[in-house]
Amino acid sequence: MTTDVPERPAAEEDEEERAFVTLMVANQPCGIPVLGVRDILGEHKITRIPLAPPDIAGSLNLRGRIVTAIDLRRRLRLPPAPADQPRMSVVAEQGGELYALLVDQVSEVMSLKASSFERNPPTLPATWAQFSSGIYRLDGALLVVLDVGKLLALNEAA
Amino acid sequence: MDDLIADFLTETNESIADLDVALVKLEQTPDDKETLSLIFRLMHTIKGTCGFLGLPRLERVAHAAENVLGKVRDGALAATPDTVTLVLSALDRIKLIVGGLAATGNEPAGDDGTLVEALNAAAAGDVLKAPEPVVVAEPEPEDPPAPDLPARLPVAEKPPSAPALPAVATPDAAPQAEPVSAAQTIRVTVDVLEDLMTLVSELVLTRNQLLQLARSQEENTHFVVPLQRLSHITSDLQEGVMKTRMQPIGNAWNKLPRLVRDLARETGKKIDLIMLGADTELDRQVLELIKDPLTHMVRNSGDHGLESPADRRASGKSETGRITLNAFHEGGHIIIEISDDGRGLPLDKIRAKALKNGLATEAELAAMGEAQLQRFIFRPGFSTATVVTAVSGRGVGMDVVKTNIEKIGGTIDLKSTLGQGTTFTIKIPLTLAIVSALIVEAGTERFAIPQISVVELVRARKEAGGGHNDAGSEPVIERINDTPVLRLRDRLLPLVNLNDLLALGNSESDGTGAHIVVTQVGANSLGIIVDRVFDTEEIVVKPVAPILRHVTMFSGNTILGDGSVIMILDPNGIARATGIGAGGDAKAISSSAAEALHSSERTAMLLFVAGGGQKLAVPLGLVARLEDIPPEKIEISCGSPVTQYRGRLMPLVPMPGGHSINKPRQPVLVFNDGDRTMGLMVDEIVDVVEDRLHIELSGSRPGLLGSAVIGGVATDVIDTGYWLTQAWRDWFHRTPEADTGARSQHVLVVEDSDFFRQLVTPILGAAGYRVTPASSAAEALHLREAGAMFDAIVSDIVMPDMDGLDFARTVRASGAWSKLPMIALSSRADAADIEAGRDAGFTDYVAKFQRDALIASLNQCLAEPIAA
Fold first, then answer.
1. Architecture of the domain spanning B190-245
2. I need a surface site. Which of B55, B201, B404, B808 has the fewest CB within 10 A?
3. Interchain proximity A66–B557, CB inside 8 Å
4. What is the pLDDT of residue B762?
């Protein structure tokens, strides 16, 4: 772990804290910067969109606005969620459009110190590495920071 | 930017638009005092205001133009086209400067000296008093509008120039300042209206949700009455807000008189533009979207549609051509007709162009009706203008218009009569924001189909199945090689299963019934099979998320009364996805023929009935035309029926059997070869289908090659060669010289399929070649060993044992034939196959049934060595 200190990005040198909405996808804790989150939704009725890319779960009605739902498990190439498991979603905005990221569970908002941040380990599988902007070391767990912009850039990926 | 400048810009732009229209009107009616004083007033206001705001360049031009107009008004100068052109060019300069002003906030630099001089010269024309106008600013006229301007800022009265008038105008002009339209108006930015519209849309949705809730909770009756009131108010509010978005279509037209005038001058034509129903209102958004297509179409009508005065005179029309724009409401739509009384669409040019661009084969074109041919102009890159003018003919034309109109859920159609003119009819929805839609279900998902494109709903049984004996009135979905179709009022309606189209998986089909939503897109009808049909609902169309834009099957999505999101189907997209109407023609003939070029073993067959109920087929590629000949046109010559066809006698050959002469029309299949034509009289032409051909030869009956299963029905395939000889005994025995010079060259045809061999042999024979058929590559090679010599080899590609490519390699490798031209004949003719063929050593590659292409290719291959 001697490489620990130089690995840290220079921009976050000061002990600035950043807040993340933490969530679980297939037992992996993940975080999304809280400023990018518009809403947290519980179980919601989702309309399937035929012929859409497989990562798109469908669309849902958020107080009169139509929101495109993206299944994070499918986006990360993970096995589908058990049928009986309620899903929650995190609503984020991109280019004036709202998108809901379908996850297994949304938990608290955490403030995390920059000192516990690390870049992606080079061994991280590409399916994760392309959406992750780094890792936070928590007590007893590692939190993957997800890049919402990349998650929603479906056109390039598809 | 300065608020004053901003207001000045809005106002001036309005004045400029009005001036454009008024000036053109003045040119036509030079004595119209009212128009003249209106023009004078508008120009004067522009000059006055810009003097006040300190815009010297603008003022100078406006002033000079005003001087000219003043002379015209005083009767010192006539409103000749030249004068009007001059004033219009001044107006253009003003537009330019105003444009620069809007962009930068300052007057752009530039020199108007020549223009001003020209104007001054015109003003000086007859009158002695003129030399004074070069003076840059007359201080007097500016004063009156100055105090008036700030007061007008918050609320602008429409004709703003009345106070400016007395300062310059003669007193008698004042009473004509039409006070009629002085309605109070207020300027609101479009954004505010858009926001209002969005809010109202949300309100409508919420209202719908509430109504649905109220229906399900009947015990609680307290809020029923207030809810009803809320519902009414919401409806009224929606209507009111919609009204604010409505604008007369005349706003999209006001540039047209000027455009037509300029066009007329440029092309030396005389054109009258007649505009009817200019006050028909439609949604601002729609208006913006149709502005450009309309302009384009009017320009087209003037440039292509109308003839020159000389041509018109020659064809007995008045010299002045007429373009008519007509707008009116019909149901929830607005119809716009653009018609001209010009030459109509030149069908022969369209045919030639379609052929040249490879959009259709000659045989297909021959079978097409006029309307179908005319619709070719909606294809991309299709311009029949031989000369590209500055105005039109660049091939970015009607296809763009069509796409733009379809984008807003509209349709376009045309009617053209040669020599009498063309009428385009555009049908567009009044508004895009809220539409009425039919809610349907397929594969447990619900979808909305815009009511505008739904023609009718039909219930049909899915299969003929067991209940064969019940004479139910429900039509049955039939299948042609897995493609569902429906007989609907004596027409075949192509069907598409929404379930399959959207890959929804298994449908929860309840028994044997199916609902068919018959949609109409342009001239195409398409039936969409759905599982269930619900109600119609007013829906608020919302665009789909950008990441879903590539799914062309949907035009948007919406939220239903129960709060669920559903997708709105786009009938245009569905039609395109199914291959129908890609370019605006519906008939199966074109789509299937186009496909025949791509798919490997499929052949388009023309099905017909002849000889008393026999089902027969012939490869479509061999039929030159289909004709309906009235019986009185059938004459008897030398004991055989003939008809006069395109100025010559065409022998008619009846199919033996139940041929009856007393039919109202006699359907005839026309075959031709060189300058000879023959007609095969049949009972009825049924359809064109595309299918794999598996012909089992019988050969026992003359005139028939054998039978094949086409569309699940055993069908006899006729031997065209036999029927050709029935008409012309010497069809295949003509002296070679009679055709294209001396060439009794010897061609080897290698083809495993008896059917094709029997087809190709007479074709080549007819073209004057001696033909030796071989049924396999091995047989051909035997001939080589035996020392036979040919001038060319025509070979199939797909053959058992040794295929055409191997055969070609073997031939090329060694032996006496290694230098012979070889032509590959195959149903596979895409680029990769052609490449493979060339690599193997084939000289040329021709698709099966492309008879003309084959003969042309042979001629070329055999001509080359002679020329060399």
1. Orthogonal Bundle (1.10)
2. B404
3. yes
4. 67
C-alpha span between B385 and B421 (Å, rounded) = 16
CATH architecture of residue range(s) A38-157: Beta Barrel (2.40)
For tokens 């590539």, name the residue: B550
Q: Does A54 contact chain B (CB < 8 Å)?
A: no
Beta strands B634-637; B676-681: pairing state: unpaired
For domain B595-727, the CATH superfamily is: CheA-289, Domain 4 (2.40.50.180)
Q: Which of B659, B502, B489, B521 is nearest to B585 (CA)?
A: B521
In DSSP terms, B488 is beta-bridged to B491
Q: What is the pLDDT of residues B177-232, one digit of tens each?
A: 344 444 567 888 878 887 887 788 778 878 877 887 787 776 777 778 888 888 88
- For domain B250-429, give the fold: Heat Shock Protein 90 (3.30.565)
Largest CA distance in chain A: 53
Quote the pLDDT of residue B25. 83
Q: List, in order, residues 6 or more apart from B406 with CB less than 8 Å away.
A: B412, B521, B572
Q: Is B124 helix (H, G, I), strand (E, B) or coil?
A: helix
Domains of chain B by residue range: 3-176, 190-245, 250-429, 434-577, 595-727, 736-867
- Gap between the Cα atoms of B486 and B497, Å rounded: 12
Enter the tokens of residue B450.
């815009």
Q: B45, B156 in Cβ contact below 8 A? A: no
In this structure, whether the domain defined by B3-176 belongs to CATH 1.20.120.160 is answered with yes
Q: How far apart are CA B72 and CA B85, in angstroms?
A: 14
B450 three-state secondary structure: strand
Dihedral angle, C-alpha A50, A56, A61, A65, nearest 10 °: -110
CB atoms within 10 A of CB B620: 24
> pLDDT band at B589, cuts 50/70/90?
very low
Strand, coil or helix: B27: helix
Structure tokens, B213:
């809730």
The superfamily in CATH containing domain B434-577 is: SH3 Domains (2.30.30.40)
CB within 8 Å of B441: residues ≥ 6 apart? B447, B530, B531, B532, B533, B534
Chain A residues 78-137 with a CB less than 8 Å from chain B: 95, 97, 99
How is residue B74 written in tokens? 């005083």
Which residues in chain A are closer than 8 Å to B553, comparing Cβ atoms? 50-51
CA–CA separation, B264 vs A74, rounded Å?
Answer: 62
Write the CATH number of the domain with boundaries B736-867: 3.40.50.2300
**Torsion B196-B202-B206-B208 (CA) sign:** positive
In percent, how much of chain A has pLDDT > 90?
Answer: 9
**Contact across the interface for A47 and B548, Cβ inside 8 Å:** no
B441 has a pLDDT exceeding 70 = yes
Domain boundaries, chain A: 38-157
